[in-house]
Amino acid sequence: MASTAEEICLIDLPPLPFDASSPKDEQARWIRRCLELASLAAGQTAPNPMVGCVVLNANVVVGEGFHPGAGQPHAEVFALAQAGARAKGATLYVNLEPCNHTGRTPPCTEAVIQAGVSRVIVGMVDPDPRVSGRGIQRLRQANIEVTVGVEEAACQRLNEAFVQRVTHQRPLGLLKYAMTLDGKIAATGGHSTWVTGPTARAAVHQLRATCDAVVVGGNTVRHDNPRLTSHGHSPHNPLRVIMSRSLNLPSEANLWNTKEAPTVVFTGPEADATQKQLLLAQGVEVIVLPALTPHWVTSQLYQRGCAAVLWECGGQLAAEAIKDGVIDKLWAFVAPKLVGGKASPGPVGELGIRHMGQALVLEHATWRVLGNDLLLEGYLSRPNPSQG
């Protein structure tokens, strides 16, 4: 399936020394191509996974495709359609196990079998219980040779939000913040534009393009007037989500321009009725929850089909989201700047931690240099109770 969409790099793959005589390297090469194709639909497939497919016949690519979004044909269908009769006897590469159930689209396994493919190379087993292992089993029953687990770690990383959603019934929560070297997200007077440089900001715009929703609090709307879009780095913009108990929000804001991207405001029972009507009149969706908490908002976003939710909020809401258990991953930008000041806000508010043994630790942490700034990326772990 051809596409003019800008490719977004979701995975950092180390260089792969290719040895044409090595079957293992050959398989890894084409699964990585599947991942590149799958990434073309970043942020647009939820609640479905990102999937790419390559069909090779006599070492020549005869078909490629990727899944563009829920309700549309899967990657295998596009690749096989492009291959046509050349799919007979070919090898099909796909980063995720082909489905073997009827949902919005027919089973991909049947399309593969009918095309006459002789071999299938699968990156990872689908964690969805409707699929898991059944697609592979069906292909083998049809006497198709199946190899599983090629470049599995990279495949898992690409679809980590999908895996989180189907295994935990909750979107993957990412907390992003930018701070100075002394741990401040704004100066004493509240000014925060800009903590980091243009390269780091562009990385944030690209990150938004891979997410289904981005969440902020009312303070962020009042002080920063953000757009929360991908700023042209992708045709995809996430759902913009605001949490505000009383709806004490400005009458004019970039987020009320719903032609640019949809906006939903979650509020509580004490919401101002007049302000609610003003927002509704501008095309903003307003939802009243019995309790305005990150847990409730995350549950609502899950029901909407979201797989990856980005939190770009201030320290207080960030702490609430962490305590509510909805944050799984952090993107922490560190700028080589100092602002000082006891009143200068930090990226995470009160967590109730009184002992260093209770500290939340990032696992699988990596550092990247982005212009003059650093990016720390890692997965949030929970403390060991025995160390409390």
Describe the protein.
By secondary structure, this protein is of the alpha/beta class. The chain contains eleven helices and 14 strands. It has helices at residues 23-39, 75-83, 108-115, 134-141, 152-158, 160-168, 198-209, 218-224, 273-281, 294-303, 315-323, and strands at residues 52-57, 60-66, 91-96, 119-124, 145-148, 172-180, 213-217, 239-243, 263-267, 285-288, 308-311, 329-335, 362-370, 373-380. The strands form two sheets. A nine-stranded mixed sheet has the order 10-9-8-7-11-6-12-14-13, with helices on both faces. A five-stranded mixed sheet has the order 2-1-3-4-5, with helices on both faces. It is elongated, with a radius of gyration of 23 Å. The N and C termini lie far apart (53 Å). The relative contact order is 0.12. Residues 1-11 and 13-20 have low confidence and may be disordered.
In short:
With 388 residues, the protein is an alpha/beta fold. It has eleven helices and 14 strands.
Q: What's the β-strand tally? A: 14
Oligomer type: single chain
Element pattern in H and E: HEEHEHEHEHHEHEHEEHEHEHEEE
Gross morphology is elongated
Strand and helix map with partners:
Layout (H helix, E strand, L loop, with lengths): L22 H17 L12 E6 L2 E7 L8 H9 L7 E6 L11 H8 L3 E6 L9 H8 L3 E4 L3 H7 L1 H9 L3 E9 L17 H12 L3 E5 H7 L14 E5 L19 E5 L5 H9 L3 E4 L5 H10 L4 E4 L3 H9 L5 E7 L26 E9 L2 E8 L8
Parallel strand pairs: 3-4, 4-5, 6-11, 6-12, 7-8, 7-11, 8-9, 9-10
Antiparallel strand pairs: 1-2, 1-3, 12-14, 13-14
